[in-house]
Amino acid sequence: MDTARQFIPMTPVRMVTAEEVARKFQGDIPAAARFHCPSCDRPVHFHHATSASGKPGSRSVRAHFRHAKNDPVARFCERYQAGIGTDPRTKLPALPMFLRRNRDRDSSMFHLELSVRRRSFGHDLETELREDHATITVDGVPYDLAELVADRKHTIRLANPTFRLTHRITVPEQWQRNVGAPENGAYRN
């Protein structure tokens, strides 16, 4: 997760981002500093940005906060991630897609409508999406995820619904758990 509440003795409690903590403390976080999840109020741990080799400072894995592994209370939090993306058996929720007939009179052509549904019960998902400037890209065109989450009636139209949707639709990995991930359709006879 990108944000947490910071508790340091003799200072006011405040919401901080992982990048802010990385810049401020430069890897030397005071022992008295504590961080808590904004959704479930459970303690979270700060993790530095690392490269694939695990060395601090690289940007291949962004600085972030993480719940304690297997925390029996935190696992019910919408921000808890038990290795999503690392276990191939873990299935992310699918983006809602609807096959619609074109409105032309006597049309036998169809199109696909894609929408984004909020899968997080946290009240600040829209705010986090805005702060992250998160976008979903469909056929090379970016759409603001915060706007799509805010207006459930807004859909994105794909004119040709039959080819390689997972290559045509891109959702940032850190938001797939909250809004869904693209899936290719399967033809069934």
- Give the number of DSSP strands: 11
Rg, Å, rounded:
20 Å
Q: Counting H and I runs of at least 4 residues, what is the number of helices?
A: 5
Instruction: Give the rounded overall mean pLDDT.
Output: 75
Shape designation: elongated
Largest sheet: 5 strands, antiparallel
> How are the strands of the largest sheet arranged?
2-1-3-4-5
Whole-Å distance between the termini?
A: 42 Å
**Strand coverage percent:** 15-25%
Helix and strand content put the structural class at: alpha+beta
Helix content: 10-25%
Order of helices and strands: EEHEEEEEHEEHEHEH
* Low-pLDDT runs: 84-90
Summary tags:
5 helices; five-stranded antiparallel β-sheet; three-stranded antiparallel β-sheet; elongated; alpha+beta; 189 residues
Can you give a write-up of this model?
- The chain has 5 helices and 11 strands.
- It is elongated and about 70 Å long.
- It has helices at 18-25, 125-132, 145-150, 165-168, 173-179; strands spanning 3-7, 14-17, 34-36, 43-47, 64-67, 97-101, 110-114, 135-138, 141-144, 156-158, 169-170.
- The longest helix is centred in the N-terminal third of the chain and has 8 residues, at 18-25.
- The protein is α+β, with helices and mostly antiparallel strands.
How are the SSEs ordered, and which strands pair?
Elements: E1 3-7, E2 14-17, H1 18-25, E3 34-36, E4 43-47, E5 64-67, E6 97-101, E7 110-114, H2 125-132, E8 135-138, E9 141-144, H3 145-150, E10 156-158, H4 165-168, E11 169-170, H5 173-179
Antiparallel strand pairs: 1-2, 1-3, 3-4, 4-5, 6-7, 7-10, 8-9, 8-11
